[in-house]
Amino acid sequence: MRLKPLVEEVGDSLGLPREGLIDFVVDIDDTLRIDADREHLFRILNNLARNAVQAIEGQGGAKGEIRISARREGRRVLVEVRDSGPGVPPKARENLFRAFQGSARKGGVGLGLTIAAELVAAHGGQLQIVDSVRGAAFLIDLPDRQVR
Ligand SMILES: Nc1ncnc2c1ncn2[C@@H]1O[C@H](COP(=O)(O)OP(=O)(O)OP(=O)(O)O)[C@@H](O)[C@H]1O
Ligand SMILES: [Mg+2]
Q1: Per-residue pLDDT tens listing for the chain (148 residues)
Q2: Which of 11, 15, 64, 115 has its Cα between 20 and 30 A from that of 22?
Q3: CA-closest residue to ligand 1 atom 10
Q4: Ligand 1: centre distance to CA 138 (Å)
Q5: What's the pTM value of the predicted model, to 2 decimals?
Q6: Using CA atoms in the order 119, 36, 135, 131, what is the torsion angle rounded to 10 degrees?
Q7: CA of 129 to the centre of ligand 1 (A)
Q8: The dihedral of CA 61, 20, 108, 136: what is its sign?
C-alpha cells in the first residue's frame, strides 16, 4: 500500500494543530509503497506520534514539530518518526521497550513503545531509537514480505 496517505491519517488522528503549537510534517514520496498490515502500521505510527505530542506538550507552551520521513532501501522501507521535543529522558531509555517499565511520564502506562516494537517485530522488522542531538527519533525498519 502507499505509505503517505496512512501517515496523513495518523496525523489527522492526533487532533493537531493544537493552537498552532505542533506542526505535523510528512516528508514521504507520493509513490512510496510499504508492505505491512494497515491497522498494525497505523497503531505503530500512532503510538510513536502520540509520544511525540505528549513530549512537546510537556514542555509547556514551546512550539514543536513532528516529522515523519521514509525511504525505500531495496526490499525494505525505513520510516523515521522525529520530533523537536525534549528528547527521551535517561530514566525512560533504560527500559524503553519493556512493558510497564519504560514510562517516565506522569499518567503513562509504559506500553506504547512495547506494543509498537512487538508489532514491528511481528512484521519481521525492527524498531530502534536513533541518537539525535535535539529531540527524539525512532526508526522503523520494515522488510517486504518474502515472495515464494
Ligand atoms: N518522542 C518522545 N520524546 C520524549 N520522550 C519519549 C518519547 N517517546 C517516548 N518517550 C519516553 O518513553 C517513555 C515510554 O513510552 P511509552 O509510549 O512506552 O509509554 P508511555 O507513553 O509512558 O505510556 P503509554 O504509551 O502506554 O500510554 C515515555 O513515558 C516517555 O518518557
Ligand atoms: Mg506512549
Answers
A1: 999 999 999 999 998 766 678 999 999 999 999 999 999 999 999 999 999 999 999 988 889 999 999 999 999 999 999 999 999 998 888 888 887 777 778 878 789 999 999 999 999 999 999 988 899 999 999 999 876 6
A2: 115
A3: 88
A4: 12
A5: 0.94
A6: 80
A7: 12
A8: negative
